Amino acid sequence: MPELPEVEALVGYLDGRMRGLTVARVQLASYAALKTVDPSLDSLVGEPVRGVSRHGKFIDIAIGDAHLVVHLARAGWLRWSDAVSSAVIKPGRSPIALRVVLSDGSGFDLTEAGSKKSLSISVVRAPRDLPGVARLGPNPLDPAFTRADFGRALAGRRTQIKGLLRDQSVFAGIGNAYSDEILHAAHLSPFAIAATLPEATVDELFAALRSTLERAIAEASGRPPAELKDAKRARLAVHGRTGEACPVCGDTVREVRFADSSLQYCPTCQTGGKVLADRVLSRLLK
């Protein structure tokens, strides 16, 4: 799933290529992916692209007086082309959910792999008309978001820190991969309870959050969409690296599996050498 750094890179790439051009054609191939009916997709045709921005993991393309808002979810992606194919997309016959063609012939396809479809495409008059955008918490990289704000977000929450970092109503844009990376950088167990963290640990976690995301954005910036997935995998220290050596201490990266997801961590760096139980109700092994 693309998270804040990849979505930020996609937004920068799209804004540099789409701004000022006009939408020449839109073709919907997955009717289930379209979550709104008014304004219509067809109303975007002939309208200029005013800019591209981000709200958490949502991509917001301002077109005329409307906004084309996309959430790529777990298996969605965006494929850019400087010369989009003129072939008609047959619904159900390809992974393409939506094609947008611009006035210079360039454009993109939104695609989704797998059988579990959760890609979301919406056309709205204002991004906050979407419940998913309206409920978003602060951007953790916003200069106005301070260490004090971060501390208040954690205070009183009897919640495991891994889940809290992923909660979009608390911190917009952080997902499964970067929460693993942030906790590894902060030397913190994913099962630590947010409300019980000492102030010094909160300091370290806030610094790790900022540095991890800023570094990832810097490394992703300017890359075309086709390179972003591989570039992300290459820079991850623990996420998706079960059984490999931790790049910091050399211990084996471990995994905790849940019903529909998993997390990765380093016992030496994060849990004092203790191995977390790999079951749905995970806890430290006695």
Automatic annotation (TrEMBL):
Pfam families: Fapy_DNA_glyco (PF01149), H2TH (PF06831), zf-FPG_IleRS (PF06827)
Domain Formamidopyrimidine-DNA glycosylase catalytic intervals: 2-119
Gene3D superfamilies hit by this protein: 1.10.8.50, MutM-like, N-terminal
Official protein name in the record: Formamidopyrimidine-DNA glycosylase
Organism annotation: Agromyces atrinae
This enzyme's EC code(s): 3.2.2.23, 4.2.99.18
InterPro entries on file: FPG_cat, FPG_N, H2TH_FPG, Ribosomal_uS13-like_H2TH, Znf_DNA_glyclase/AP_lyase, Znf_FPG/IleRS
CC cofactor: Zn(2+)
Reactions catalysed, as given in the entry: Hydrolysis of DNA containing ring-opened 7-methylguanine residues, releasing 2,6-diamino-4-hydroxy-5-(N-methyl)formamidopyrimidine
Keyword Nucleotide-binding: no
